[in-house]
Amino acid sequence: MGDLEYLLRLNLTRNQLNGPLSAEFGNLRSIQIMILKNNNIHGPIPIELSDCFSLITLDLSFNNLSGVVPPTRSFQGFHQKGPPKLAVLQIDVKGYTCEDIMRISENLSEKYIVGYGASSTVYKCVLKNSKAIAIKRLYTQYPHNLREFQSEYDTVGSIRHRNLVSLLGFSLSPNGNLLFYDYMPNGSLWDLLHGPAKKVKLDWNTQLRITVGAAQGLAYLHHDCNPRIIHRDVKTSSILVDDNFETRLSDFGIAKCISPLKTHPNTSVLGTIGYIDPEYARTSRLTEKSDVYSFGIVLLELLTGKKTVDNESNLLQMVLSKADDNTVMEAVDPEVSVTCMDLSLIKKTFQLALLCTKRHPSERPNMQEVGILGDCCS
Question: pLDDT tens-digit profile of 102-159?
Fold first, then answer.
């Protein structure tokens, strides 16, 4: 390995590497990107890595390293005060380190909080170049939160699509497990539909464009990624909206990568009440059609303006009962009726939502078909 003097990029993720990190890696003088995550490398980081003068990205996460970070200039952005801990930072923002961002955000002061989740808190941080980023801080007191951190990094950290959030970087540090994303000024679709402020009134075409964008992002995960990825937590709060009302699907903490050899893997049932596919909940067999079901619930939220579960009311059951009586149009949100002049488009969207939420997964369309049908509703 040490003889590869002109090697520029090295990725040995999940290669079952075992043992200490060889000092010969320091001979890779031209290396720019070195990714050795998810192995069983143990022991200290060899000081010889400081000789990799061209190194821009070094990812040693999810190994069993110990000791201190080498006290050299090459590693100055990785040092932490207090007990020795390995911090890994891959920020795609020139000139900033994790310490810079912590200083700007006053060590993640409460005044910068813009949202909460079941396992995380989200902060807004405006950098000196006026770029706003979102910092997702995952709680570290429970073991499953480390798995969520790893899942989110492994999925969205390695894929790119216009309708998926872009991971700018991550850090394992005394400040917690941190993920850095572009900040979405319009919040989530949940905020726009149900939030207390509801600052922006969305017309029907904009609402539908947001959901079609989410469908296109899911179609990419299901059909274009290898291995394919099932999101498992599709809901209005995981559909973010940028300043141009373009969609960014987020929250990949429980996403599942599925091997082509496994068509119906059995997994622990995870997700959000009101959006979980009942067939998945009953059998623990996970397929892409579980995401399709959840997307159908999102469409019903859009059409009715109602939450999926509100007290004892269930949104899908309410819509199904009205569909049986041929009175489903009575459930339409008045704001939708005002901004959509062609009621036939609303009926088509109801039909699509009910198709996505069919009881048997085999009767549901796939996400590519959903995207095509969604375009027909606009």
Answer: 889 999 999 999 988 778 899 999 988 888 999 999 876 666 677 788 788 778 877 8
Judge contact between 123 and 134, C-beta under 8 A.
yes
Single residue among 158, 183, 208 that ends a domain in this structure: 183
In sequence order, what are the beta bridge partners of 64?
A: 42
- Rounded to two decimals, the pTM is 0.77
List the structure tokens of 108: 């993640």
| Distance separating alpha carbons of residues 179 and 328, to the nearest angstrom | 42
Please tell me the predicted confidence (pLDDT) of residue 87.
41
- Those residues whose C-beta lies under 8 Å from the C-beta of residue 76, and which sit 6 or more positions away, are none
- Kindly report the CATH number assigned to the domain that includes residue 152: 3.30.200.20
Taking each helix axis from N to C end, the angle separating 288-304 and 204-219, rounded to the nearest 10 degrees, works out to: 170
The DSSP code for 254 is T
Which positions make up the binding site for ATP? 136
Q: Are residues 288 and 177 in the same domain?
A: no
Q: Is the same domain home to 256 and 335?
A: yes
Tell me the C-alpha distance between 19 and 41, whole Å: 5
Q: Do 347 and 225 sit in the same domain of this protein? A: yes
Q: Residues forming the annotated binding site?
A: 136
Query: Among candidates 3, 6, 375, 15, which has minimal Cα distance to 205?
Result: 375
In whole angstroms, how far apart are CA 58 and each of 28, 37, 91, 176, 261? Answer: 13, 9, 11, 19, 32
Q: Which residues are catalytic, by number?
A: 233
Answer whether 303's CB lies under 8 Å from 350's CB: yes
Query: CA 167 from chain center: how many Å?
Result: 8
**Distances in whole angstroms, Cα of residue 324 to Cα of each of 64, 318, 359:** 58, 10, 15
Q: Name the most confidently modeled range: 90-94, 241-245, 290-294, 336-340.
A: 290-294
User: How many domains does the chain contain in total?
Assistant: 3
CA–CA distance, 354 with 364 (Å, rounded to integer): 9
End-to-end Cα separation, the chain, in angstroms: 56
Domain that holds residue 274: 189-376
- 44, 126: one domain: no
Domain-terminating residue out of 83, 113, 128: 83
Residues 328 and 366 in one domain: yes
What is the spatial distance between Cα 54 and Cα 72, in angstroms, rounded to a whole number?
15
